[in-house]
Amino acid sequence: MADTEAGTGRERPIVIVGASLGGAKAAEALRDAGYRGGIVLIGEEHERPYERPPLSKGYLLGKESREKIYVHPPQWYADHDVTLRLGTRVASIDPARHTVTLADDGRVEYAKLLLTTGSVPRRLPVPGADLDGVLYLRRVEDSDRIKAALRPGARIAVIGAGWIGLEVAAAARTAGAEVTVLEALELPLLRVLGREVAQVFADLHRDHGVDLRFGVQVTELTGAGGTVSGVRLGDGTELAADAVVVGIGISPATELAEAAGLEVDNGIKTDQRLRTSDPDVHAAGDVANAYHPLFGTHIRVEHWANALNQPQTAARAMLGHPDAVHDRVPYFFTDQYDLGMEYLGYVAPGGYDRVVFRGDPATREFIAFWLTGGRVLAGMNVNIWDVTDPIRELIVSQRQVDLDRLADPTIPLGDV
């Protein structure tokens, strides 16, 4: 890269906005690819880059130490000549001038820019939502606050039965708290998994003593002395709560991209090389709505594997490697009580015509496949391990399969 800072003769660095898992992995991938120029990694948080899954799983449960959540040891950044600027907010981006302006009026010029700005939790739009004890989960300090609330006998209300809500509910029950989950839809994870598999998670939480309330509307959070004390529902029901955890989804952090004139549509829109509408700006992780060549559409995936793997593609693309294409099959996982699950593939809401089970869902040891026209779109293995490779092959092949053989656990998946 020969792009230089105006008037200095120095090569402009690659700048990464978002000191997240994605940002840290992009810096690592740039060095692994042989890039020896400057790298500036800028993040709003004061913590060095860390992984988020433990915040609702092992770290929240107290099974993982704080030190284990970090992507790299503290010295890694200096050892790899990465300028890490924490506690620093980016105010604006100017693609025409190739500059990033900071909130303190500082300015950083770039040759290439990578946006790994992630996402932000959606706020609950009801009276009382600003009371103390109303908690969201995104950052490590959020996990610390929730962990402190998960005491034996504490009354915890969880609003939203998505992945975060259910993982927090499982952690709360494991800690001995009394848990009520409030969900507007008829089942947990209904839009993600469909009715057939969503029922598995409803049964799981009921079996562990969670009070599941579906089809409800939260109209107000009540409190005393500035602290939340309960939840009022649309039918007038009032539930006492010592803490309320809100998990009603996240929104991609696209403000900087929008203001800079980049194309934004449910995230920062990119091609399969993770390049935005400006050729010198790339995006990766939660914020990227990337074109996926296998599925032939743009997909924004809000899971750890994207933040882990997309930066490798973005780094190589920024360095001009023609083979840098993001075509990995989406992957995510969850751990709740004694249930461990891995999911591979992509299914748009309502985009399948049948679900095939290999094994009995009632035993919570099974594989579920979502299909359309006899082709496997996605697969989920529950408490069955070492099957992600054949599931991935079934998805990537895009071939019609024999449904009876797919459902037969005596036939190896690799033979289907």
Give an overview of the whole structure.
- This protein is of the alpha/beta class and 416 residues long.
- It has three domains: 14-120 and 251-318, FAD/NAD(P)-binding domain, CATH 3.50.50; 134-248, FAD/NAD(P)-binding domain; 338-415, FAD/NAD-linked reductase, C-terminal dimerisation domain (Enolase-like, domain 1, 2-Layer Sandwich).
- The chain has helices at residues 21-32, 53-56, 76-79, 140-149, 163-174, 190-207, 255-259, 304-318, 388-397, 403-407; strands spanning 14-17, 39-42, 82-85, 90-94, 99-102, 107-109, 112-115, 119-121, 134-135, 155-159, 178-183, 211-214, 218-224, 227-233, 238-240, 243-246, 250-252, 268-270, 281-283, 288-292, 297-299, 331-336, 339-345, 354-358, 366-372, 375-382.
- The strands form seven sheets. The protein has a five-stranded parallel sheet. Strands 9-16-10-11-12 form a five-stranded parallel sheet, covered by helices on one side.
- A hairpin with a 4-residue loop joins strand 14 and strand 15 (238-240).
